[in-house]
Amino acid sequence: VPAAPPAPLGCDDPESEAAAEVAVNYINGHSHHGYKFALNRIEDIRVVPQGPNNDIIFLELDLLETRCPVLSPTPLANCTVRSFAEHAVEGDCDVKLQKLDGTLSVLASKCHSHADSNEDVVRVCPDCPLLVSLNNTEVLETVSAALNDYNSKTTGPYLRLLEIGRARIQYYPSHTVAVEFVVGATNCTAEEAKADVGACQLLPEDQSNFGFCTASMVKGPSQSLREDCQLYGHQVPTPPGVTYIHPGQDTS
Amino acid sequence: SVTKRAVAEAAQHDKVPRPVGFVPPPPPPCPGKIRHFDI
Fold first, then answer.
1. Which of A14-23, A181-190, A198-207 has the highest mean pLDDT?
2. How far is A121 from chain B, CA to nearest CA, in Å?
3. What pLDDT band is residue A130 in, cutting at 50, 70 and 90?
4. Which of A39, A95, A101, A114 could form a disulfide with A23 if both were Cys (CB 3.0 to 4.6 A apart)?
5. Do A43 and B37 touch (CB under 8 A)?
6. Which chain B residues are closer than 8 Å to A8 by Cβ?
7. Mean pLDDT, to the nearest integer, of B6-35?
8. Nearest Cα to A164, choosing from A200, A188, A137?
9. Which of B37, B22, B4, B3 has its CA nearest to residue A63?
């Protein structure tokens, strides 16, 4: 009598969770835009034996966006998942791994991310700020004003905008634009930049100072601007020999 | 969702007295647990 096939791997089995952890670390390590994602749920797992000690594992993962930008040195375990009221962003990922002699490696991954619907957020939190497009005029004004304000006061290097990561607008009790953006240090001081900003170049990547800023602008009669920038001091190196997910595929 | 109904039905069954030695069915292997929240 042929031996019964092994029971299918459960999504919450330790082996599945180990594969999911490898997959999430790979996805975060190879994404260069946006934020780190954390595992929320293992939707499905399929194991296709290839031979002795050689399996191909197909994973379907539900991820949630954290507050850590992908360039942040903060370990994923210390990155807080954005709450529902922060207008959470979910990632759906299909990942193909190989388990060879007990060692897991990612062969391919494909992710789509999407924000929770405005209706869902408003239903739970009617006055919560909602995500808006990153090229929204008010968002661009706020980022520009915040970065100019920071550069006008800093004694450190002149910072240049690299990427706007997130933007939300709240209308009640006050019209407030909240933004998050990634900056890069240049070879100028803020004083030198005042003289000739065109001469300020981003530092070479190997010694670059990436940083992350949060800012908010309250509109209306009592307009106010607040910004806070943190420089990381190092950069996540690009692993040699790694091919990225082809351009054009959704990865963020 | 299907998963919740299945769980609810199992829960109701659990309220029915069981013969000695009854082993409830194992949870479905997938999808797995939600670690944060579902959107």
1. A14-23
2. 10
3. very high
4. A95
5. no
6. 29
7. 71
8. A137
9. B37
